[in-house]
Amino acid sequence: MRGKFKIRQLNKRTGESTVILEESNQVSQGMKHALVNILCGGGSREVEDYQFKYFQLGDQNYNLSTFDVSADVPASSLLSNFWTIKSPLDPSAYGTDSAVTVVKRDIYGLGSIIPSTRGKVFDNFVDPPDTTKLSCSYTNNFESNPRPIPPGPRKTTWIPGCANTWEKKAENYFLHPLELSADYTVSGPTFTSPTWSIEYNSSSNVAGITSCLRGSTEYIYNDGRKPSYWNQGKKNQTLSVYYMPEYYASSLASTSGSTPTVGKLMLYNRTAAVLGGDSVAGYNQVRFEYRYDLKYSSSSTPGAAWYPPEITQAIDGYSQCTGDCRDKWEGSYGSGVTGGDVSANVYCRDGAIYTPADAEADYATRNGPGKDCFDTPNSGFGPSGNFYRISVSWNNVPDEVIDVDTGLVSGIALQAFNYPLFSRALSINPTTGAITSTNDHEVTPREQLYIANLQFEYTPSATPYQYIHAEKSYYITSSQDFLVIPKGYTTSLNDNTANVRLLIDEELANNQTIKEVGLFLKNPNGTAGIDNPFLTAYKVISPPLAKNNEFSYIIDWELSLIDSTTT
Description:
This protein is 9% helix and 37% strand. By secondary structure, it is mainly beta. It has two domains: 2-114 and 478-560, no CATH class; 128-457. The strands form five sheets. Strands 7, 9, 10, 13, 17, 18, 19 and 22 form an eight-stranded antiparallel sheet that branches. The model has no long low-confidence stretch (mean pLDDT 88).
């Protein structure tokens, strides 16, 4: 499917017509979805429902030229996977004096439910639902204090935990060991806010504890389900997350001890821990060290510098299971059965820093596409380049570990544990910048970190970041405002083309800056009662149209089906 897009400007006073933009356009997911309906016999059986009936104008636009996590689009492979334009105008922006009709319709697309509000939101530039991702695999929502009163449902799919003794104390019963809050002043890897601020509880004694973020078992999905406490482990799985720790200059003796130093990600196999008689048998984990220029505080400008974290350990549970634990492991899984391969990576804006060969060398070398980032400050993601992505992968898990069944336990009961604040600086030498670490978090201020976008998936390495707001995406509809394409404005000028003309008359959307336009099929699903339009083509208007009543515009859009075997 290809598209050609042309805008002509008409001067009301002189009648002069000028072509101001003529380019190709981006075909979007709605066109693919409609074609699947036709080829597979699903959706509407009415020809009229597959006609171009609606369009929208918007005052913002996606960045479709930069395919990385720091922009709107995470990867070229996901380029067409969007269902809505970025910022459609509403009736007040379109105005009331135009001859073009404005109507409300229920746009169709991939979306999810925001836990805190239960509101719908579209998830653009993500893969359609499939079996490679867990139900809570992607989220940028975390639960903050207080904990809900039992049996109240959780507010999100990820919650603080892993500090069982602390949480069970009466004085902490309704508190989280980690405090999380949405921070609208800090933009994360997608250049959008909020990100989530995380620190140890400031109102309770947290000395000697270590807390994590884990999947919630009390969350209630939109369809009434609850997550399983333990996920099913498979041959390959990967957990990844973005971090930006707050740090303090070595010269600030009163606060330098509040600088985070070490984090940890773990894919915990509870089955192995039970069968081995030792929790370490289930620890498939990576440790990493945060890196800064400690001459400057992160709150100081200029000079604040974050470097990519460094992997210091990636180890599987089997390797840590020794002595009696190893005997029990072999008695359950069989002699010679190991624990699979655990590896890790760090990602900057140029890509992964490590390669598989670097992992074999215990991360003493760096030869990935992002290797030069290691000594380059602020080479990560987000407006300041100070968010870095870290992943842990547990791959090539032996079949004996996957298929074990003792009658009491079976398979891999898996949990993803994220320890963003595993240890802090006890002190920083103001001359050398040397750090010593401790797990005692009883400091003032509490060490702090910003976190974004946990991604848990059944893949051998971290795939392109995809922004899903909360629950696993499914197909939703939501009311939006559309402009109606009159009958007779759609035709076919060639055997393999559909040609559409859109009119933006002198009175439509005046005093608006038009940066995008979307073209929609009428109702390919055949929904009764009200059309569910599909976005089929999209175009960024550059330079934008500063709309006024001196000019009208005609958009000629041509879409064609091309046989790729003949090109």
